[in-house]
Amino acid sequence: MTVWLHIVAIVLLASLGGALWRVWRGPSPADRMMAAQLVGTGGVAVLVVLAALQDWTLLVVALALALLAALAAVGFVKAESPDGAGDPEETDPPEDWRTNSQKVPQDG
Amino acid sequence: MSAALDLALCALILGVGLASMAGRGVFRAAIFFITYGLLVAIGWARLGAYDVALAEAAIGSGLTGVLLLAAHGRLRRLRAAAESLSRFNLPAAIAGGGVALSFGWAWFALPVPRAPDLTYALPQAGVGNPVTAVLLNFRAWDTLVESIVLLAALIGVWMMARDADWDAPLGLRYHARPSGVLASFGRILPPVGLIFGVYLVWAGAESTGGAFQGGTVLAAVGLVAMMAGIMRPPRVAQGAWRAALVLGPVVFLGSGLAGAALGAGFLTLPEALAKPAILTIEAALTVSIAVTLALLVLGPPDEGGQQA
User: What residues of chain A, 19 to 78, have a C-beta less than 8 Å from chain B?
Assistant: First the structure.
């Protein structure tokens, strides 16, 4: 059983590597942010497996991570709005919103 | 098998650390730093330091992420993001490499420190979690000074405010579509986080948790509520918020002086009173830590921030 749990944890870490590749490549800030959220989800999964392997108190750490990973997404949405304090839902999206998100330079 | 797991984790941590420094782009570096905090938290969990893992998860990938992203958004509005991080910084690389090498040298050259034996001291501490016992009883002095340092940092941030903005609410004027996703999220997350934060403080006496971790979770959900426009940011001059800021250090200092008055010595808790005293100090510290961290992330009062 422990061998299997180790293998599951390693596979999960490898999948984090895939998400990290997307953080590196981008190209748009939203791609990087969503990849970071995927890393967060994978990290919670790794911690749950480690909890089964080591100590169930690790579930508390996993829960904290799950709660707070969403915080970065909220911060991102705020920071990307024009005045740094808004919400993309407040205004109707412009006609070219789909292409517009691709035009954002790599440096953000 | 567990060696393979540790090696994979180390490779990821090193790779993410390198990626956050290499290449251009402030935003990419910030995102990599957030994932770095998460991986380091897994590393601490792997080492069995669950309290540190919890603190790293809450601070490293939670609050710091918001801080970095907000700073990046502000830089972008000031059109300054493109100028920074554009070239290789040799002095910083030498300094960072030197620190890393000296840590490596210390690891190989110095003897492995023996962990202090808490077998006899822990039953007298009043709490079952050795980390909490050390933080609030055996080395209470450090924790007291740390809680005051946090306050000094907040005062430093407030000093950045312009005189004209002093009476304005802290941070930016956050707004969101009233029935939108963000506003709904701002209503759903805080109650869950409130319960979890209080649980962390209460459980910290016996198992993983503590005032700092619980306070960070409370600060985070408070920030979500403020960013979603559910809760209004406080002002510098509001007495209740100022009282919340100093509550923890004041109760801590007061209990330390009470220990001296009872004859046990400054910041020394008598064994009979240790448990209730630690819980009282932790509850007060949690309030102060939560408010201080939330206000640190919000930033100074800034009426002109939207034009900047």
Answer: 20, 23-24, 26, 29, 32-33, 35-36, 39-40, 43, 46-47, 50, 54-55, 57-58, 60-61, 63-65, 67-72, 74-78
| Structural domain count of chain B | 2
In a domain, A54, yes or no: yes
Q: Is the pLDDT of residue A49 over 90?
A: yes
Do the domain assignments include residue A85? Answer: yes
- C-alpha span between A83 and A71 (Å, rounded): 19
Number of structural domains chain A divides into: 1
Look at residue A60 and tell me if it is in a domain: yes
Q: Are residues B254 and B139 in the same domain?
A: yes
Write out chain B residues lying below 8 Å of A107, CB-based: 24-27, 81-82
B225 to chain A, minimum CA–CA distance in Å?
11
The model's pTM is 0.85
- In terms of domains, do B202 and B92 share one? no
CA B212 to chain CA centroid, Å, is 7
Are B308 and A83 within 8 A, CB to CB? no
ipTM of the complex: 0.83
Q: Which residues pair with B49 in a beta bridge?
A: none
